[in-house]
Amino acid sequence: MVKAIVGANWGDEGKGKITDMLASQSDVVIRFQGGANAGHTIINNYGRFALHTLPSGVFYPHITNIVGNGVALDVAKLLEELKQVEAQGVPAPRLIVSDRAQLLMPYHALQDAYEEERLGGRAFGSTKSGIAPFYSDKYAKTGIQVCDLFDEVRLRTRLTAAVELKNVLFQHLYHKPALDPDQLMEHLLAMREQIRPYVGDTVTFVHQVLKEGKTVLLEGQLGSMKDPDLGIFPMTTSSHTLAGYGCVGGCVPPTAIQDVICVTKAYSSCVGSSTEPFVSEVAGEAGDELRRRGGDRGEFGATTGRPRRVGWFDAVATKYGCMVQGATQVALTCLDVLSYLEKIPVCTGYEIDGRVTDAFPTTPALLRARPVFEEFPGWKTDIRGCTRYQDLPARAQDYVDFLEAQIGAPITMVSTGPKREEMTYRTPKI
Ligand code: GDP
User: Fold this and answer.
1) pLDDT tens-digit readout, 220-266
2) Residue to substitute in 334, 341, 384 for testing ligand 1 pocket (most ligand atoms within 8 angstroms of CB)
3) pTM of the model
4) Which of 230, 172, 179, 199 is nearest to 78 (CA)?
5) Count of alpha carbons within 13 Å of 205, Cβ hemisphere only?
6) Which of 148, 155, 318, 343 is most buried (CB neighbours < 10 A)?
């Protein structure tokens, strides 16, 4: 059976912690989309880790970790991450990289950076890791698959064709130096030798383990709002962030996904440019304080270190985010962060052109939306590390009940700290 762990919002909801926690009862963990442009923070007995491409099952020797065909594979970054994890004392993980995954090439990162430079003030706030050019090339069919590395004639032909196109862009649009295909070929062949031990047929492997009745976890990156179809286009990422895409990027049959665990935080955070719509944002001193207290070390990007924008819980976005993921259950993280507050606002509606709605709109209307808040009394008690739901203060439980009723999906887990064991389990009321 397959369980998906995905984000309900803008990413950074704490999926890494939930995956790390649930991984112990799983046999396989699959990353099915995205690249090294976002990170999962995991804190366990080995220490603190920011994983970018490696699946979060790497801390368990019994787990097979899969980099699925839907991932934008930056080989250098993957190998670097493996080295880092092993340097921190983690035994060499079982890892299979799909032979159908495509390679994030050095020119993708260059193109990303050149394009942001060209856009200037209109830039998307990309992490410049090449994700958008990578997926553009995949769908334009000029991408290079891992399997191509093992057929040198084919590899050279495909690379030459790709470089021809890139050089027109690089020289004539961006006024930058041309790429040298020979140099790139050399780079790819060196890369091939390093990745060779991990490459495999993940499609057959996944179908086989499912036939054997094993448990597979799909680990999503970012969240619903960043999906290019159902998110806040164009301030989205370039791969699908929805559990449904696990069927393609992780190659599990749609009927095998029995559980979709949607992760959301007890407040909101979002990375990306300041022009991105973020309706429940808290500005000024109150925002600075929430940012400082958020997560395990404040709300700063796991990959970029950029300060994240923060806001109150957005029930409109989260309800929609859970709906499009098809959430069967919800994990609410970072409840402990709110313990300092006298009053806790929750965004329960958007006012758009004078009318209040709880339906999440398309981008042009979203850009005009103003938040409607309801306030909750805070519990003002330190709940960090609490492991029994019934031990949480009544006001904290009331807050969770309210969020559950708003989003219309059962909250089964409430996290009270960044560590694996800092978790409470709750019987949903809906
Ligand atoms: P992901 O991309 O969804 O895995 O999320 P990140 O790892 O980027 O961000 C979540 C942040 O919240 C990390 O710093 C986690 O260590 C931290 N975190 C996760 N759950 C909790 C929690 O319940 N309480 C606190 N205080 N921090 C948490």
Assistant:
1) 999 999 999 999 999 999 999 999 999 999 999 999 999 999 999 99
2) 334
3) 0.94
4) 199
5) 22
6) 318
